[in-house]
Amino acid sequence: MLRLARAAVPGARAAGAGAGAGPPETGDALARVLGETGRPLWALEIAAFALGCARDRRAFETLVFLLNYRDPVRGGTAAHALVRLGDPRTARAAAALATNELRTAYALHPVRLLVALRAPESVPTLVAVLDRLLELPDPHWPVALACVEGLGRIGDPRARPVLARAAAQHRLRPAAEAALARTGG
Known about the structure:
single chain; mainly alpha; Leucine-rich Repeat Variant; 2 domains; elongated
């Protein structure tokens, strides 16, 4: 992805190499791509990814847009860059996307991002999403499984009640039992 950014944007040679890498005009050239109208989505994605990996907060809004996009590859790429970006707004944005009932099918990457961030919002959001999914006759299994696995990875005891309910679902049982063991339950 970074090679594409370097090829697509003149002056983007050092983008993504780390915070403060390269001359300031490198980030400025990539940020201009984000602000220009008529740019194709792939160009925005490349510029936002490079800026995010370089910890340039000008990429935040575009990365959140891509995290909410219906293409899973774009969502995964955006989540990776958002973790590297380190913006304190990220957890709140991921929580809002994960709990949006109209976008549950696209919540996989926001859920995984919350797990990676381990922010104060992570456990309450994952518990709420999983609780809501378990109420449905046919939950979005990949999202529910990501919640279960994420809660297990975090290991917070507040997740025990919802993990116990998840263990009653045959598709979630192995992951839920493992997660319960990690939470001390």
